[in-house]
Amino acid sequence: VEAVVIGGVSVVEAVVIGGVSVVEVVIIGGVSVVEVVVIGGVSVVEAVVIGGVSVEEVVVHDGVSVVEVVVIGGVSVVVVVVIGGV
Questions:
Q1: Which domain of life is it from (predicted)?
Q2: pLDDT tens-place string over residues 60-72
């Protein structure tokens, strides 16, 4: 687990290489980037918030299902792609 603060930039990294799970939290000003990568199942979760704009990507490679949620103001766009039974 690493917690590094450089000016207004704080970076938190939690890396476990066994399963392999990687958690990255980066906050730069009003911009927070959260990456959760778990390579076992394999699930990848990406959450990026810039001001009022939040972009969330959830990728699960099993079935394979891809979920993308983009919220800009009051407008939310949801894209769901499931490739299993297709």
A1: Eukaryota
A2: 444 444 444 444 4
HSE-up of residue 18 (Cα within 13 Å, Cβ side): 2
Question: 8 by DSSP, 3-state: which?
Answer: coil
CA distances from 61 to 21, 77, 78 (A): 15, 22, 18
Residue whose structure tokens are 């603060």: 5
Determine the Cα–Cα distance for residues 46 and 82; give it in Å rounded to an integer.
Answer: 18
Using CA atoms, how far residue 30 sits from 14, 57, 84, 85, in Å, is 21, 19, 38, 40
Encoded tokens for 58 = 């959830």
Structure tokens at 71: 């919220």
29: left (phi over 0), alpha (psi -120 to 50) or beta: left
Q: Which two structure tokens, joined as six digits, stand for 40? A: 């076992």
* Residues of the chain under the 70 pLDDT cut: 1-86
